[in-house]
Amino acid sequence: ARQAAASPPRSAPRASLGELARALSQPAPETPDGGPDAGSSRVVGNRPELKSVRHFRNTWSKLSVDKQLAKALGRAPKNAGPINSHSLVLRSLALMRELSPDYLNRFMCYADALLCLDQGDQARPTPAKKMPRAKAVKK
Predict the structure, then answer these.
(1) How many CA atoms lie within 13 A of 90 on its CB side?
(2) Where do the DSSP E strands lie in 1-131?
(3) Helices and strands of the chain, counted as H and E runs
(4) Global pTM?
(5) Is the pLDDT of residue 51 over 80?
(6) CA-CA distance, 112 to 76, in Å (whole number)?
(7) From 27-36, 46-55, 89-98, the region with the lowest mean pLDDT
(8) Considering the domain boundaries, does residue 111 fall inside one?
């Protein structure tokens, strides 16, 4: 009788925890106006990403791209000709920054990902190839 009085009923907490688990596993509702946040939120685990985190990531990405581009433009060749590939790439990136900064951010993220993949591939040791033996000369 003493144990029954001391322990709380277990069915009520299980029901509320089950409801909470079901609510957390539901996808995040889209904004009713179909605005920029509609369907664009990332899901971390079972929870949608906070708007402030998404805003911080976007701002940080833009600042990083601007810093990289300013650094690259500072190292531009001084007396490059009109068809110098390095100069053409830098000019196109500067134009992209003026016309569409969001596209520049996406392009730079894509280029960084490709660069990381290329560096990871170069860091992997290549297997040693067996050299064919020279044939003996018949006398």
Answers:
(1) 18
(2) 43-44, 47-48
(3) 5, 2
(4) 0.50
(5) yes
(6) 19
(7) 27-36
(8) yes
